[in-house]
Amino acid sequence: MITSNSAQRLRSTCLAALLTTGLALSAFAQTSPPAPSEPRVHANWLLANRYSNTALRNVVFGTSVQPRWIGKTDSMFYNWKNRNGSQFTLVVPMTTTRRPLFDHEKLAVALAMSTRKPIEATNLPFTTINFTRDHKAIRFAFDSTRYEWALATETLKSLGKVLRDSVPQDEEREAGGGGGGGGGGGFGAQNDDFRNWSPDSTAFAFARNHNLFIVENVKPNGTTKGDTTQISTDGVKDYSFGFRDTAQVQLDEQQQQEQQQQIDGTQGGGQNRRSRDPRVRPTVVWAPDSKVFAISRNDSRKVKELYLVSSLAQPRPTLTSYRYSMPGEENVPQQELWVFKRGTPKVTQINTRHWKDQRLMNIHFNVGSDRIRVVRRDRLQRNLDLIEIDLASGGTKTLLTESLENAALEPQNVRYTKKGGDIIWWSERSGWGQYYLYDNDGTYKRPLTQGSWHAENISAIDSVKGVIWLTGEGREEGENPYLRHLYRVNADGTGFTLVDPGNFNHNTVVSPTKRYIVDSYSRVDYPTKNVVRDAAGKVVMQLEEADVSRLREMGWKMPEPFVVKAADGVTDIYGNMWKPFDFDSTKKYPIIANVYPGPQTESVNTTFIAGGVPQQLAQLGFIVIQIGNRGGSPLRSLAYHRYGYYNLRDYALADKKSGIEQLAARHKFIDVEKVGIFGHSGGGFLTAAALMLPPYNDFFKVGVASSGNHDNNIYNQNWSENNHGLKMVAVRKDSASRGRGARGVAALGSGAPSAQSAVAQQGSVVGAAADTVVAADSAFEIHVPTNIELAPNLKGRLLLTTGDMDNNVHPGNTVRLVNALIKANKRFDYMVMPGKPHAYGDMQPYFTKLLMEYFAENLLGDYYRVDANIR
Q1: Contact, 476 vs 489, CB < 8 A?
Q2: Alpha helices in 668-712 (DSSP H)
Q3: Which of 513, 569, 609, 713 falls between 20 and 30 A from 373, CA-CA?
Q4: What's the rounded Cα separation, in Å, for the pair 357 and 337?
Q5: Is cis: bond before 695, omega within 30 of 0?
Q6: Distance of alpha carbon 132 from its chain centroid, rounded?
Q7: 423-427 and 434-438 as β-strands: parallel, antiparallel, unpaired?
Q8: 719-739 residues labelled b (16+ CB within 10 A) or e (exposed)
Q9: What digits encode the pLDDT tens for the residues 736-785?
Q10: CB 539 within 8 A of CB 520
Q11: Which domains does the chain have, with CATH numbers?
C-alpha cells in the first residue's frame, strides 16, 4: 500500500530522475498546440534536411589546396577531390607544369592485384603519401600495410605491416613535422615517431614511464640502433617527462570499436589504431650543434584533482580523476627548465625563478649550445621577459621586458632575422599588435611593422636576402578587418609590400626557396580559389577552385555579410546572415544569433564554408546570424580585444542586442519580437546569460546553451585568469595563524621588473639563489561573475546540455546552474549526453535536431512532442 507521503516521495523521485538524466519535466509538458492568438507556422524540415552536413557530404568537395613541398625545392604536390573523383597533382611553378603526380590507373590496378580487392583510380583508398628522400618513390598505407610505388618503373612493392612508431629514415619529413629536424621523416602523423632527433641525426631522445632516455651513436642512415641511456630517474605521475598509459589506450580502442560497430555495423580495419608503445616523444629542444637539448617539465603533484564518473563503463561505472587547477587557487602547475649535455650522465635543472607561479615558454637556443633563451611570464599574465641563461655559470641576463595594465599579454615566439641576428619581437604596446627589431643583445632598434592594424604571424624568413614574410589583418582600406593578407618587408623595416592583393581572406604558404607562394583565398560569400604567386605577388599559375555547381543546382545560396555598430554607436561589428533558400521578403521571420563571445576568438566566419548548423537552421524558417562583439577577437586593437577584462560575463550582450536591433530596423522581414540565441562552450555561457541578465532577458526569448562554462571559477585556471584578470593581495604578517580569511586587501601592483631587478642568478642547480619579484606572503584572488548568480532572473525558454565526461568544461558548470534554477523555481529544459566529452561526437546529429526542434517549437509554435520521435 502506498501512503500519501510515499506517493509524494515517489513523485519527487521521478521528477529528480527526469531532471538529471534527460529533458526536464517541463520539456514534456508542452504537447498542446499554441493558442489561437499564436498561429502555428510549420517549420520547413524538408528543406533543412536537404542541407544537413550529412546530405552535403557528397555534394561539397575540395576547397583549399594543402601543398606538400618536395624536399627544399619549389615543386609540390597535393591531393584534390571534385565531382570526378580525387587525384594527386604535381606542380612545378618554375615551368608552370601541372599534371598528375603518377598514373592513377596503373597504381590502382597494381594495388588491386596485390590486395585482391577492388580499387578505383578516381578514389584511391589513401589520401596521405610520403616521398622517399631520393624522390624516386612514394609510400602510402592501405589495409594496415605499407606500400612503395616506384615513379620511374611504375611498380608496386609491399613493405609489410604498418608500424606506427617505426618511421623510416629514408622518407621525407613533412614540413612542420618538428623534433629538431634531421634523422627520419614522417609516415602519416609525425607525432607517431617517439624519437626526437638531434639536428645531425646521430642521437635521439625519448620518454618512457615518466623518465627521459638518450640514444647515442646512431648512424644517419639508421642502420645502427645506438646505445640507450636513462638520463632521469625521478619521473613520476604529475611530474613527468612523458608517459603513455598503454592499458588505457587498449581500453579506449575497444570502446571506440564497439561504439562504431553499434553506429554503422563495421568491424574495423585497424588502420586508425593508436600506438601502444610505452615510448613517447618528449618536447625537447635541441641546440643547433646537437650537443645539448632543453625541455620544460610541469610539476602538478600539488594540484587538486577533478573527477568524472563514466556511467557507461562496463561492467561497472568507473571514476576518472585528473589534475586540474582552477582560478585563484594556491596550488597550480609549476614549470621547470631542464637541460641535458651529451657526454654527461643525467639531465639537470636550471634555475629560472623570478615570479611566483610563473610560466615558461619559447625555450630556444640562439647560437651554439652554451646559452639558452626563455620567455617567462608572471601568473598575472601582465608581465614577461626574455632571458638568456649561461649554462656553464647559471648566470641570467634579461634581454627584453614587457608589461601591461588592465589587459593580459599575448606573447609570440621570438624570431631572428638570421642566425645570431636581430630579434623580431611582437608587442601590443602601441595598442596594436606589431613587430619590433632589437639587436641580438636586446637593444631596441626600430619598428619592423607599424600602424593601426594587426600583424599576426611570421610566415617565413629569408635570412640570405634579408626578407621577412608575415600575415596581418585590418590594414587594407575598405575591407573586413578580419581578412588575412600576406606581406613582405625587408629585415631593416623598409620595403613593406602587400603580396596577395584582393578583398578576400588569404591563407598562404611560402615555398622553401621563398620564390613562390600558394594562395588559397575566399570569403564567406566567395568560394575558394587557389593560385601560385611569385615573390612579388603576381599570379603565375591557376590551381583549383571550389566546385559549387551541384550546390547551386540544389538552390543553395551564400550567406550575406553585414556591418552594424556596437552599442557605443562607433565601433564596427561584423557578422553573417543566412536566410531560408525559399525566402519571401513579404514575410516576417524570427531571428536567431549563433554566438561565441571570445576573447580568444570571434566565431564569425570569414572564409568560404558550404554547410554548417546556421545554414541548416535557417531553412526551417529563420534568419540566422553570426555577430561579433567588443572583447571578442585578438585580431583587432588591444582595446577591442580586452574590452571584457575584469568583466568576463556581461561584456558581449550589449553589442549583440544592439546589432540585432539595427538589422531589424534595416530589414522589415526580421521579427525583433522573436529573438533566439545559441552557442557552445563560451557561446553556451553567453546564451544562458542572455536569458537571465536584465535587460537582455526581455529581448532574447529562446536559447540553447550547450556545454557552457557557466561558472568560470571552476573552469581552466590559465584561461580564466588570462581573460578575466587576476588580482594579487598581500597576506598580513600578523594573521599568519588565522588562516586564509585574513588577507590584506591592498593590491601589490603589477609586479613588473626593472632592468636592475633582474640580477644574475649564480649556479645552474636546484636551490640556487633566485630573484623573486612576488613575495611568498602574497596571494592571488579572482571571482568571475557566474550565470548561477543570475538564475532567479530567468525568462523565456532555455535548453541546457552537457556531456557527462567533459574534461574541458566540467559538467559541474551546467549542474550548478541547473541546481540554482530549480531552487529559483524556474522552468527550463536539460539534456545530458552520456559518455561524451566537450564535443558530442556521434551524438552531435541528435543534438542538432534537438536544437532545431527547440527553436521550431518555441519561436515558430510548431510543436512535435506528442510522441518519442525527433524530426
Answers
A1: no
A2: 682-690, 696-699
A3: 513
A4: 14
A5: yes
A6: 32
A7: antiparallel
A8: bbbbbbbbbbeebeeeeeeee
A9: 444 333 333 333 433 333 332 332 222 233 333 344 565 567 889 999 99
A10: no
A11: 563-718+786-860 (3.40.50.1820)
